[in-house]
C-alpha cells in the first residue's frame, strides 16, 4: 500500500478491514521543551476524499497551507476530537504516557461527538505503537501522516491548534520566542534558557531543565 495516495490508502484499509468508521490519530508536541502535547482524532467522510486529495503530512506544509487545509477540512465535513496534556501532566507521568492519555481522550471525544459505536471502528495511529489502554481496534502506521488521509487530517488539526497555543504563550513569555520555534530546542530557545532560566510552562523533566539548579548553571 506504500505507493497509494493518502485517500487510496484509507480506502484500501476500509476495504480490507470493513470498519463502519475509520479514524486517524496523531499527536504534535512530544519533542518540545515547553508547552503541551496535543492529540487529534479525525474522521473523514468518504465523500470528502476527492476534495482533500492534496492534503499531506503537516510537517511538509507551510503554516499558510495548514490553515488553508484546516478550513477546507471543516468545509468538507471532517469531524475532529482533540485533547492535550500540559507541561505539568507531562512532568508528572512522562511524555509517552501523556501522549497516550491525550490520544485516548481525543478518540473518546470524537466518538461522543459522532455517536459512533466504539466496537465498529478502526483507529489508525501514527507511529509504530498502539494507543496504550484504548479498547477499540487499532492499526499502527509508521509514517502514517504521510500515508493516510485520516492521520494527515489529524496531524494538521493538532499542529494548527498547538501552534496557535504556543503563539498565545509567547504573549505571556516573550523572552523565549515560542511564536518562532513552538517550544522546540532551537539555538535561540536554548540561549534564552541560559539567560532567563525556565519559564512556568517549561517541562522540568526534560533536559536541560531537569539539570537546572539556577539560571547561572546554564551559563
How would you characterize this protein structure?
This protein has about 220 residues and is α/β, with parallel strands linked by helices. It has two domains: about 170 residues, 2-Layer Sandwich (Nucleotidyltransferase, domain 5); about 45 residues, no CATH class. The chain has seven helices and five strands, in the order H-E-E-H-E-H-H-E-E-H-H-H. Strand 1 and strand 2 form a beta hairpin. It is globular and about 55 Å long.
Any chance you could write out the topology, listing elements then pairs?
Elements lengths: L5 H12 L3 E8 L8 E7 L19 H13 L3 E7 L1 H7 L1 H20 L6 E6 L10 E5 L7 H24 L5 H4 L5 H10 L23
Parallel strand pairs: 1-4, 4-5
Antiparallel strand pairs: 1-2, 2-3
Helix pairs in contact: 2-5, 3-4
Short description:
The protein is α/β, with parallel strands linked by helices and 219 residues long. It has 7 helices and 5 strands.
Amino acid at each position: 500500500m506504500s505507493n497509494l495516495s493518502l485517500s487510496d490508502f484509507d480506502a484500501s484499509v476500509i476495504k480490507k478491514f470493513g470498519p463502519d468508521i475509520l479514524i486517524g490519530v496523531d499527536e504534535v508536541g512530544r519533542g518540545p521543551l515547553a508547552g503541551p502535547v496535543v492529540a487529534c482524532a479525525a474522521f473523514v467522510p468518504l465523500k470528502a476524499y476527492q476534495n482533500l486529495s492534496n492534503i499531506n503530512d503537516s510537517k511538509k506544509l507551510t503554516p499558510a497551507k495548514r490553515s488553508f487545509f484546516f478550513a477546507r477540512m471543516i468545509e468538507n465535513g471532517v469531524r475532529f476530537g482533540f485533547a492535550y496534556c500540559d507541561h505539568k501532566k507531562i512532568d508528572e507521568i512522562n511524555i509517552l504516557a501523556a501522549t497516550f492519555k491525550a490520544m485516548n481522550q481525543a478518540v473518546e471525544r470524537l466518538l461522543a461527538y459522532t455517536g459512533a459505536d466504539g466496537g465498529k471502528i478502526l483507529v489508525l495511529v501514527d507511529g509504530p505503537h498502539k494507543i496504550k489502554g484504548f479498547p477499540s481496534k487499532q492499526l499502527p502506521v509508521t509514517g502514517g501522516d504521510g500515508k493516510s488521509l485520516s492521520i494527515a487530517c489529524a496531524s494538521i488539526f493538532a499542529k494548527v491548534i498547538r501552534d496557535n497555543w504556543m503563539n498565545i504563550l509567547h504573549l505571556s513569555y516573550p523572552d523565549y520566542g515560542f511564536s518562532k520555534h513552538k517550544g522546540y530546542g532551537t539555538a535561540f530557545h536554548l540561549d534564552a534558557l541560559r539567560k532567563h532560566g525556565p519559564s512556568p510552562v517549561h517541562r522540568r523533566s526534560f533536559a536541560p531543565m531537569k539539570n537546572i539548579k539556577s539560571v547561572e548553571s546554564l551559563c
